[in-house]
Amino acid sequence: MSSPRLIAAVAALVLFPSLAPSAPVVFSASGADAASIQAEVDAFRDALGALNPNEPENFDGGRRQINWDAAPDAISDPNPFPGDFFNFGAAPRARGIEFRPSENPNAGPQELIADGFQLSSTEASGEPVRFGFEDELGVFSPERLFAPTGGTIFDVLFFDPADQKTPAATRGLGIIFTNVSETYDETGAPTTDAIVNLFLSGQDIGSDAPKLSFNAEASGPGGLSFLGILFDAPVIVGATVQAGFIPFDEATSGAGVVAMDDFIFGEPTVAPVPLPAGVVLLGSALLGGATVGRRRRRTA
């Protein structure tokens, strides 16, 4: 079932003196199949803007996305998936996004840090589909899924699609999970086993504690969950994702295994060169008592 959109409070960020981004809008839904989350996924896509070409170019706004399904068998189960595959200098791989095992001591239990990634196989490949857990793992865009190996915690980073080296930021990140379960945190409060921790402008994903944390809704076996977080400006510099507690490559059954389908994100944007202090102070003075409007959420 689909939940109402939530507006999460965000701590003030020093993008420019006296200015901070508005609170994020959270898009969240879960259900037994793709139709259960389609409306929320579409709303998130529409909020980000048109789908940009998969070219090593910079676009003004819009979005990029990954559905994994065009990836070749050579980088799919049983072969490893290179985390930088979609940070590449030619179409159709130019997306400006990378996946890496987390090196941040704040990422979570070290025994849950992933050491690599894998894509599930297609039926035509002759390998077991959905990592061998067809009953527990559903698909949004058939037929490949993505999952970390050797652990369940990994990082997502953004780069300039035009040069693949310069760190970039995005205004929104959305992930489709499958087989998300209800669980409890250390205080006994109900939560789930699919978590997205965000790092915002000015933070170091390798050492800082994340600024914000969100849980995908529980979907149940074979179900799907969508979680999308949207800001007014490109302030997301990275994310640490936890996809369950049991890596699929160490599981004896599909219970507790979480995989992912589509990743949807705003055009990766390189931060502007900071203004000289005198110009910033002048701008702050001119702003005076002006207020910064916050995005109004739509009613569910």
Protein model, in words:
The chain is built from 2 helices and 15 strands. With 300 residues, the protein is mainly beta. The chain starts with 5 loop residues before the first strand and ends in a 13-residue tail after the last helix. Mean pLDDT is 88; it is low at 2-19 and 277-300.
Beta content: 25-35%
Q: Catalogue the unreliable spans.
A: 2-19, 277-300
**Average pLDDT figure:** 88
**What value does the Rg take, in angstroms?**
19 Å
Question: Span from first to last CA?
Answer: 13 Å
Helix tally equals: 2
Number of spatially distinct domains: 1
The strand count comes to: 15
Described by strand count, sense and barrel closure, the largest sheet is: 6 strands, antiparallel
Notable features of this structure?
300 residues, mainly beta, five-stranded antiparallel beta sheet, 15 strands, globular, disordered N terminus, disordered C terminus, signal, transmembrane, membrane
Describe this structure in a few short sentences.
With 300 residues, the chain is mainly beta. It has helices at 34-48, 277-287, and strands at residues 6-7, 25-31, 63-66, 97-101, 116-119, 146-149, 153-158, 172-178, 182-184, 190-192, 194-200, 212-215, 224-230, 236-243, 259-266.
